Amino acid sequence: MASKTGSERLHAFGGVTMTDAILVTILQNRLENIAEQMSTVLRKSAYSPNIKERADFSCAIFDGRARLIAQAEAIPVHLGSMGYVAKPVLKKFSETWKEGDAIIVNSPRGEFGGTHLPDITLLAPLFVDGELKYIVANRAHHADVGGMTPGSLPPDSTEIFQEGLIIPPVRLYIGGEENHDVMNLILENVRTPEERRGDLRAQYASLMLGIRRLKELITTESWDFITLQKELLDRSELGTSRRINSLPTGYGIFTDYLDSDGISSEPVKIQCKVTIKGGQMSFDFTGTDAERVGNVNAPVSITTAACAYVLRLITGRDVPTNEGCFRPMNIIAPEGTVVNPSPTAATSSANTETSSRIVDVVMGAVGKIITFPAASQGTMNNVILGGNTGQRWTLYETIGGGTGAMLGRDGTSAIHSHMTNTLNTPIEALELNFPLVVREYGIRKGSGGAGEFEGGDGIVREIEFLDKTTISLQTERRVLHPWGKEGGEPGDTGQNSLISSDGETILRGRQSLTANPGDRLRIETPGGGGFGSKS
Q1: Which helix (H) or strand (E) holds 246?
Q2: Fewest C-beta atoms under 10 Å: which of 50, 125, 136, 224?
Q3: What is the pLDDT of residues 174-194, one digit of tens each?
Q4: DSSP secondary-structure letter at 14?
Q5: Across the beta sheet with 119-128, what order do the strands follow?
Q6: How much is the pLDDT for 17?
Q7: Which of helix, strand or coil describes residue 103?
Q8: What b/e sequence results for 350-385 when a residue is b if at least 16 CB atoms lie within 10 Å of its CB, and e otherwise?
C-alpha cells in the first residue's frame, strides 16, 4: 500500500484515506473471522462437556508485538485478561520459539496473566521469513486441574497451592510434536487425565487452524499489514476516546460487597471511583479491602478485564475490539488488596465471583455520571461436582440468573450476564455423561426486583445424584441483594439447598460437602434489580 502525504489523507477516519479505511475494515473482519473459525475447531474437537457444550473458552489473535488485534465473541473475563499473558510469553520465548511450538500457562502469579488455575491458555507463533507476524491464543476452562477438591475450585482454599497444578509458561508442543514430558506431568496431577489430554489437543488444533488461515491471508493479499494494523488499533483508540468525550465530565464513587470470602462471614468491600475527563476513563479502587484469607482475591488481570468490559458496554459494537480500545483506560489497583493481591493469595473464585462484583461496583460508579442499568444477579453460581467411586468424573457448571432492568426496558430472565458468556450444560448432555438426573430446570418466577421496569428472574436447577458425589459451591448474592436503581427494588438473593431423606438443608454460598445416591442439590439463582419507582 503506497504511503500518502498529509494533504491526501482524510480526517473522518482518524487520518486515513477512504481506501485505507475500507482495507482496515476488511482486515478487521478477516481477522475476526479467523478467530471465530478457531473457536469452532476448539468446540467441535473438545472432549469435555464444559468446552463442547457450555463453550467455556475464548480465542484471540495478537500481532507480532503481542498486542490484541482481534478476538472471537466469547468470555469477557478471558478476553480482557489474555493480553496480560501474551506479552510475558513473547518476552520469555522470543529468541527461542519456532513455528509449531505452543506455550501452555495457567499461572495467575506475577506477570503471567492467568485468572484461576482451571483456565489454561495456549499460545503459538506465526513466522514469515523468520519474522514473528502473529501470536494465536486460546483460553479454556478445564473441568479439573488437581487441587484439594474435584473441579479445582475449592470453596475454602486459603492459598493458591491448594487450588490445583500451577503451570508457568512452558512448551507443550515443540515444532509440531507433543512434549510428552510436560503433558505427562500435567496428566499425573489431574483427576480426569484422558479428558484433559483431549481438551489440550483440541486447543492446539484450534491454534494450528488459526496459523493456517493467517498464512493464507498473508500470502494471498499484498497489503501493508503493519500499517493497516496500526491504523486498526488507532481507529479503536480514537473511537473509544470520542465516545468517552461524548459523556459528561465528572466522577462517581460506588461501594458494594461480596457476601464473604468463604472462610469468615465478614463481607468483602470493593470500592471504585470512576472519573471521565478528556477522553479518558479512570478506575481507582482505593478503599477496597486488603486481600483476604479466602479465595476471592482477583489478580490485576481480572480487575482489568472487568473494567474493560464496562468500557466496552459504553463504546458499543461500532468500535472494533483490540488493544486500541483500552488505551484511554487507566486503572489504579493498590497492591495487597482484593483487586491486586500477593502472588500466593487464593484466587479460585475471583475469576467468577469477584469479577462479577467488580463489574457491579464499576457500573454503579458509572451510574452516578450517566444513566446505567440496575445490578444483574452478580454471581456465576458455580457448581462443581465430582465422583471418586469407579471411574472418576468431574462436572463444572455455571447457572444463569436475572439481569438488571434499565431505563425503558425490563431485565432479562434466566441468562448468563456480564463477565460470563457461556451456555448451560444441556440436560441431555449432562445425564448422558454423568451419574446425574435433572429433576427441575425452570425460571424462578418473581425473583426479579420490582419497579417501573422489572428485573429479570433467576433460575431453579435441581439435580439428583445417582452415585456418591462431592459437591463444591462457589456462589454469591446469597446474603446481599442485587441492587435496584432510581427507586427500583433489589432482586431476590439466591439460595442453595440439599434435599435428602432427612429433609432440606440450606447450604452456605461457599461450601463443600458429600451427597449420597438419591440426594438432590437445588440451586435457586438471584434475580436482577428493578429500575425506577413502581408507583
Answers
A1: none
A2: 224
A3: 999 999 999 999 999 999 999
A4: T
A5: 68-71, 57-63, 131-141, 119-128, 102-105, 170-174, 177-178
A6: 52
A7: strand
A8: bbbbbbbbbbbbbbbbbbebeebbbbbbbbbbbbbb
What pLDDT shows up at residue 19?
54
CA dist 60 and 78 (Å) reads: 10
Which amino acid belongs to residue 281? M
Say yes or no to pLDDT of 498 above 60: yes
> CA neighbours within 13 Å on the CB side: how many for 476?
27
- The residue assigned the cell 430446570 is 441
Assess contact for 422 and 56: CB atoms under 8 A. yes
**Per-chain mean pLDDT for the chain:** 92
Cα separation, 349 vs 378, in Å, equals 13
Cα-based torsion angle of the residue sequence 206, 210, 213, 216 in order, rounded to the nearest 10 degrees: -130
What are the extents of the domains in the chain? 6-234, 373-535
Distance CA 343, CA 34 (A): 35
pLDDT confidence bin for 535, thresholds 50/70/90: confident
Query: Which pLDDT belongs to residue 1?
Result: 37
Q: Is 21 left (phi over 0), alpha (psi -120 to 50) or beta?
A: alpha
Q: Which three cell numbers stand for residue 205?
A: 488444533
For the stretch 243-285, pLDDT in tens is: 999 999 999 999 999 999 999 999 999 999 999 999 999 999 9
Sequence-ordered alpha helix ranges (H) in 135-224: 180-187, 193-220
Residues 6+ apart with CB under 8 A from 315: 239, 240, 243, 244, 325
Place of cell 494450528: 208
